[in-house]
Amino acid sequence: MNRLFLFFFSITALPSFTQSKPDRIVHNDPAQYRVLRAVHAGAGQMQFAQLIGRDVLSTNFLYLHAGVIESKGGIGHHFHHQIEEMYVLLDGEAEFTINGRTSRLQAPVAVPCKQGDAHAIYNPTDGPVRWLNFAVSKFKGQGDAFDLGDNRVGASIDRVPVFVSGSLNKEGLKDNQHPYAGQGALCKRAFGPEIFSTHWNHVDHLVIPAGKSVGPRRLEGIEEVYYVIKGSGTLTVNSSTQPIVADDSFTGSLGETLALSNSGTADLELLVIGVAASQNKEANPAKPKAMVLQMDFVVPEENSEAFEKMYHSIYVPAMTVQQGYLGSRLVRLFPKEVAKSIQAEPTTFNYQIQISFDTEENRRKWVASDQHQIAWPAASRLAKEYKWRGYEVKGEDHPGFR
After folding, report:
1. Phi-psi region at 99: left, alpha or beta (left = phi > 0; alpha = psi -120 to 50)
2. What does the alpha-carbon distance between residue 308 and residue 293 come to, in Å, rounded to a whole number?
3. 384 lies in some domain
4. What is the pLDDT of residues 240-252, one digit of tens each?
5. Which of 206, 212, 214 has its CA nearest to residue 186?
6. In the prediction, which pLDDT does 239 show?
7. Domain check: are 310 and 191 in the same one?
8. Are residues 12 and 118 in the same domain?
């Protein structure tokens, strides 16, 4: 039977290691694992725990889980409406399923489980395999899951995967043209923002040879989650330095400056997950994203109700049929006592209509339209005074006014 979980196992049923900013490094300790069976209606059993949870970062990073999938165990076929995950196999091999198509992959490998795509993993081998699961939510702190009642045991195998996957071997690592370049580090971007529909921005495979380092790097517009695959070294966040070893995980928050150094004799190898703070993952400051016109009105109190009704019944319907229209908003000035309490600038204008089009050209087409000849008089005749200003949109958190 299919089951819909509003609060699903992977968030509520796991022990977690508390991570605070002064001591942000969390070690992946198998002694802390909890045994679970039939995960998402999957076969056998597995052991895992939460290393990093939803409250550590300000972005929509949801969790990092780590664990062991026992022989003939796995996670059943399921999907999420609100989150994206990425399964990482650290050793051995396992059968990965995306949308009902299954392939057997060799570690180290990462497989994104994109929002709305059904996914599963099964260990058909005679020994345990080590596994990680990173997740980013569409909405801060929210998750869901829908089980399909399919453990994928005995699934038909495609020799060549028909889904996105990325090998984490050292082939293809570069020493330049990557975010960590300059001090001897090697890197390969496994997945960029085009892979994901949430704020997930990148997945980087980073190797720092002995005696080499990375940074300091200031995190601007993104936060990052790190997992140490192999090696040892030091992590410096702002002015605080701590040692790191294999199977440690840690985070970098917005505005923090991070540096990594390899103090060992072997490579320091890490997996780096980046999460954007905004939906605008790639800003182009040279080109306006849209335009906004702000129209201020002095509306007598006796006309206030009619003015607000006019906006909803006449102005908005007239604009929604226009080419390039993105959205609008009607705002009313705070009451005098509230304005005074926040030391707001005095003004006689008590209403503002903000409208947004993709281009100024399309806004002017709206002004020349028959619908505007109806909407503007309906607004202006209810006001004693009005003025307007136009702006180019150079940045935004949510497109238009949605």
Report:
1. left
2. 18
3. yes
4. 999 999 999 999 9
5. 206
6. 87
7. no
8. yes
| Residue 197: partners with Cβ closer than 8 Å, 6 or more residues away | 84, 114, 115, 138
Asked whether the beta carbons of 275 and 196 are under 8 A apart, the reply is no
25 is written with which tokens?
A: 């490094």
- Torsion sign, CA atoms 299, 303, 305, 306: negative
- Extract the tokens encoding 265: 């004799």
Helix (H) or strand (E) holding 319: helix 316-320
Strand order across the beta sheet in which 222-230 lies: 26-27, 248-252, 222-230, 268-276, 200-208, 186-191
Instruction: List the structure tokens of 5.
Output: 């979980």
Where is the domain boundary, 241, 276, 311?
276
Interval 195-239: pLDDT, tens: 999 999 999 999 999 999 998 999 998 999 999 999 999 999 998
13, pLDDT greater than 80: no
Return the closest-CA partner of residue 133 out of 178, 103, 188, 96: 96
- Burial of 120 from C-beta contacts in 10 A (0-12 / 13-18 / 19+): buried
Distance CA 138, CA 187 (A): 28
Give the DSSP H/E element, type plus range, for residue 66.
Answer: strand 61-69
Report which of 254, 209, 217 is spatially closest to residue 235, judged by C-alpha positions: 217
Identity at 80, one-letter amino acid code: H
Residue 3 corresponds to which amino acid?
R
CATH number, domain with residue 35: 2.60.120.10
Q: Measured between alpha carbons, how far is residue 45 from residues 36, 73, 105, 129, 387 in Å?
A: 6, 5, 20, 12, 68
Is residue 64 a contact partner of residue 73, using CB atoms and an 8 Å limit? no
Averaged over 316-329, what is the pLDDT?
94
Using DSSP's 3-state secondary structure scheme, residue 45 falls into: strand
Instruction: Tell whether 248 and 296 lie within a shared domain.
Output: no
- Looking at the fold, whether 312 and 267 belong to one and the same domain comes out as no
* Predicted local confidence at residue 398, as pLDDT: 61
For 324, the domain range is 290-393
Please give the residue that has the higher pLDDT: either 402 or 250: 250
Report residue 379: phi and psi, to 5°.
-80, -50
Any residues with CB less than 8 A from the CB of 336 and at least 6 apart, and which? none
* Alpha carbons 316 and 65: distance in angstroms, whole number: 47
Do 340 and 272 belong together in one domain? no
Q: Backbone dihedral region of 98: left (phi > 0), alpha (psi from -120 to 50 degrees) or beta?
A: beta
